[in-house]
């Protein structure tokens, strides 16, 4: 099936116009320098990627002379692949892609994309901002995308690699952000946990030090103590009051916590980050989609946990 209802004559004219626009020197053939100049003229995102452009020229120029016939053959083949992918995403067969259809295709391909980045991707393709992507918009956006292994994963990776922010900086991918988020979340969780339990640690140290002192009490005093009624709750309460009074209030329960947080933050960050990364790798080895990490086998879960603990301990060993 041919892309849309464009006639062969109209297609030939459109491709020839594109060829002439890229061939800025108006020579008989199109070489790398001419292609770069042409892409800069139309502000194409691949204008500075010489590696990809060389691969495109190798694919398009069948006999090495860079003439229009080879370029036309390459473009028609590329558009056919793009149209087949477009049709596979167009679930309701209305000839346009909705944001829900694009999101569904990405999820089916195990590509996790935030709502914000999905909207940005959709807006980049939907040039007339009518809420739908036509095949023409799809085709023009993916102009010169290598079609040897064209999938929705490749399309989104192409968008991530070429999409520029308003300041001209390459935006970070969801995968990278998600990976960093695992480490940051783990570090924050460890710091919060250690801070919340700091008063109990302080109390434990205090009671241990008191016990050591009591061992030096005379045998007579020990005898008297042994005859006393031992009430744990009263001892704990006394210790807490003593720490509060001697240390200057609530701050005394958090003495040394800053150093503990400095130590626990990287440890927890590495442990949590490696654990999540290990689960994703093991899930891929088991053939599970990314959203089904909960179905990971028990053995893989133990392996991920063991690896995470080993890596974190090795990494922070000097601070122990």
UniProtKB/TrEMBL annotation:
GO cellular component term of the entry, any: mitochondrial inner membrane
GO biological process, one term: transmembrane transport
PROSITE patterns per UniProt: EF_HAND_1 (PS00018), EF_HAND_2 (PS50222), SOLCAR (PS50920)
Location (main, coarse): mitochondrion
UniProt topology in membrane: Multi-pass membrane protein
Metal-binding keyword on record: no
Solcar repeats: 177-281
Domain EF-hand: 77-112, 113-148
MF-aspect GO terms: calcium ion binding
Keyword terms of this UniProt record: Calcium, Membrane, Mitochondrion, Mitochondrion inner membrane, Repeat, Transmembrane, Transmembrane helix, Transport
Pfam families: EF-hand_7, Mito_carr
Domain of life: Eukaryota
Coiled-coil boundaries: none
Localization, UniProt: Mitochondrion inner membrane
Family named by the database record: Belongs to the mitochondrial carrier (TC 2.A.29) family.
Name of the protein this chain belongs to: Calcium-binding mitochondrial carrier SAL1
Organism: Neolecta irregularis (strain DAH-3)
């Amino acid at each position: 099936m041919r892309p849309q209802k464009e006639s062969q004559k109209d297609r030939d004219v459109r491709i020839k116009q594109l060829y002439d626009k890229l061939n800025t020197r108006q020579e008989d053939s199109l070489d790398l320098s001419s292609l770069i100049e042409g892409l800069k003229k139309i502000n194409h995102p691949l204008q500075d990627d010489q590696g990809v452009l060389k691969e495109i020229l190798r694919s398009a120029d069948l006999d090495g002379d860079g003439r229009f016939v080879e370029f036309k053959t390459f473009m028609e083949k590329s558009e056919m692949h793009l149209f087949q992918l477009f049709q596979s995403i167009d679930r309701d067969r209305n000839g346009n892609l909705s944001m829900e259809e694009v999101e569904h295709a990405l999820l089916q391909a195990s590509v996790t994309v935030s709502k914000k980045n999905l909207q940005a991707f959709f807006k980049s393709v939907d040039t007339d901002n009518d809420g739908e992507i036509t095949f023409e918009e799809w085709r023009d956006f993916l102009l010169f995308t290598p079609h040897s292994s064209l999938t929705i994963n490749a399309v989104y990776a192409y968008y991530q690699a070429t999409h520029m922010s308003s300041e001209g900086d390459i935006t970070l991918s969801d995968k990278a952000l998600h990976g960093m988020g695992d480490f940051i979340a783990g570090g924050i969780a460890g710091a919060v946990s250690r801070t919340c339990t700091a008063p109990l640690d302080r109390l434990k140290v205090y009671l241990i030090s008191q016990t050591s002192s009591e061992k030096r009490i005379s045998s007579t005093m020990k005898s008297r103590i042994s005859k006393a009624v031992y009430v744990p709750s009263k001892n704990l309460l006394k210790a807490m009051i003593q720490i509060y009074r001697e240390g200057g209030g609530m701050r005394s329960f958090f003495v040394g916590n800053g150093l503990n947080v400095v130590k626990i933050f990287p440890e927890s960050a590495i442990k949590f980050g490696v654990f999540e990364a290990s689960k994703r790798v093991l899930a891929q080895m088991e053939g599970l989609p990314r959203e089904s990490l909960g179905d990971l086998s028990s053995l893989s879960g133990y392996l991920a946990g063991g690896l995470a603990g080993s890596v974190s301990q090795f990494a922070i060993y000097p601070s122990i």
